[in-house]
User: What shape does this take?
Amino acid sequence: MAAFYCQQAALPPDARIARTPAGRPVDLAGADLPEADGLVLISSHLGQGPLLQDGLDPSVLDEDDPFATDPALDPFDAANGFCEPPRSSRYAADFIGRYRAAQAMRVERLDARARSLLAQKAAARRTLKEGSAAASDRARAAWSPVMTIWRTDADLRCWDLSLEPSPRAYGSLWGGDPIRSNWGSVGFGRLCTPESWLSNWSARSSNATMARCAPSVRQPTCMIRYLGDNSVFDTEANRLEALFTRTRIERHDVPGNHHGRPVAEGEPEGRLRAGEIVRDWLSTTRFGTGAR
Assistant: This one.
């Protein structure tokens, strides 16, 4: 979101986004968007959409049935390499390839579902404008659909520690029991409107992804990455750093999990070090000098 703001603030008003991914008008052209002096990123991922796509369980067969599962893509089936925690799973390269492709396809299906729900509501509103007084049309025009996105905690790297090895602990941000976190009520994007799905959670439709926004950032940027993070892995951190092509970026890798706490008891934490880095960066960086 911070990079998205920097991108939009730097644009001429008439070049800013005029509609959300769902088609709703937004008046960014008339908004006062002062440019930021600098940007600090701590444990930053590539955007809510890409983060969620990597965690989506692609074995879901029916979005209305959280238990409908394609066994060939089930990440928690021993036949596909899963081991009961706390043992690390071992997924084969072929399975990983099919899994990642199926995750992207699930995002496409969810995008289509969101747009279909919005189209139904828009059609009912058009009917009302044409003079319909039917109760069913009034109800559909007032309807506010909500999407339940089940099984969003299934990033293979959380359960197979041999994938992108790091000092991270077994498990995801939601814990070390993948069955509980994947089917439970708490998780990324678990309950959202079609508009919020398209604007925030869809890797395909969201405007607020680092791939789309970071190359436009021209402010000095400080990036801090925790080495034991189990939601931002080496590939994401390296990709993120590389996306800032119009500015100078200062990167620091420090110990700790996603929140800067010790990965395990007795290990070092990184929160205080991160604070010191930000303090020093703020005191020594020349702001307002534009792109480098």
